[in-house]
Design goal:
Distance between the termini: 17 Å
Largest sheet: none
Strand content: under 5%
Structural class: mainly alpha
Radius of gyration: 12 Å
């Protein structure tokens, strides 16, 4: 299992790569990177639900948040 810190690092990397792909109009790659970032955040929130309010907001804004975080 990855540590919460490592998951955060992966989220940051994938979000950055998604942003860069979007800027290059590589929207499918951007979507994939943002989806991966969302998956890591959901997992981190499951492990420590009160620690990642900003991540929960990001997931909610992007439509990636589900009630059960599955």
């Amino acid at each position: 299992n990855l540590s919460i810190r490592r998951k955060r690092q992966i989220f940051i990397r994938d979000s950055y790569q998604g942003t860069k792909a979007s800027e290059k109009k590589e929207f499918e790659i951007a979507k994939d990177m943002f989806d991966k970032a969302g998956d890591y955040w959901k997992n981190a929130i499951r492990l420590a639900p009160n620690n990642y309010i900003e991540a929960q907001n990001w997931l909610n804004i992007t439509g990636k948040l589900t009630d059960n975080l599955s």
